[in-house]
Amino acid sequence: MSSTHSNRSSLWFLAITLLSFLAASTAPTPLYHLYQEQLQFSAAVLTLIFGVYALSLLAALLTVGSLSDHLGRKPVIFVAVILNAVAMLLFIYADSVTWLISARVLQGFATGMATAVLSATLLDTDRQQGPLINSVAPLIGMALGGLGCGLLAQFAPAPLHLTYWLLLALFVMQAVCVWHLPESVSRQPGAWASLRPTLHVPVQARLTLWRVLPLNTATWALGGFYASLAPSLVRTATGSTSNLIGGATVAALTLTGALMIYTLRNRAAARSLQLGASLLPIGLILILLGVHSASLALFFLGTLVAGCGFGAGFLGAVRSLVPLALPHERAGLMSAYYVLSYLAFCLPSLLAGNLTHTFGLVTTTDGYGAVLIILSLSALFALMRRRSGSVCSATGQP
Asked: What is the pLDDT, as a whole number, of residue 237?
């Protein structure tokens, strides 16, 4: 009984810690326009500030992503939490673009380290609930970070500081609590060798990883756009000046994604992938219609539909991959998955931010949306062909 209680406590702590890291990652989103007004930088610089976070996160996944398989989970979680606390201090005292970039670089590395180790530890702690929490917690965290910071920026004092002070206090408390966790893996040799930048994808998972890649790329590229340029897009298209808009756009996308994951938690991975590939292009079309008609309601309706596709696609990808890894391969596989995901999260958005100089934000959004629709529909076509082939094989038809 005590072991069950300990497992449940660990599961809650790990879920809240993972949620906290992702909440901190989207906290700057509603503040970008305030930073722009105060520091006078362009949309390209905005996407650079966003992009260095994701690139630093990738660097962490490529180097320390599987470190906890060798050193144990607890010390790696502790270091990640401390690094993120320091990043919050950098945000608090940021008075230039250089400080913002430095804060985002450190935050990205801490989040990359935490994402891999917390995902693996959740799977160690509970094979049934772990995959679900790995899928839901990041999306809820992103929603809470964006919406919570937006609310504080709109209604509370010190909009550029209060959120970070609250997050700093949370990370300090988590650093203290980490050492009460039970260690879930034994130390393995090869820690230094594991720091060489490489992707540790088990042989048995490689084909599945390639199969889910098109839809996974589309979902994460949409998430990257929303975390960087969507608030500016809404302001440009509708003229809204509310501080809540930036957080609300992220929250609408990620909360519906989390709700969809919970709804589909007992469905087969293939079904989730098919739903994601079907709903994402419909949502994207509605978003583009909302932009061109200057309709905030239509934009948010499209965001809700796309969010459902985002959640279904994310869950389908994770549930397709997780069963294919042995315990000592989990952190490596999750690192590889998140490397590909965060490449899709940051690189298209960085490109879009630079293209706005030439084509403008609305035209760039049209092209961005069109590419994601094509990726989603190609994934849907491949899934339907594979399903049709499976049915034919089962029935003995040619």
From this structure: 85
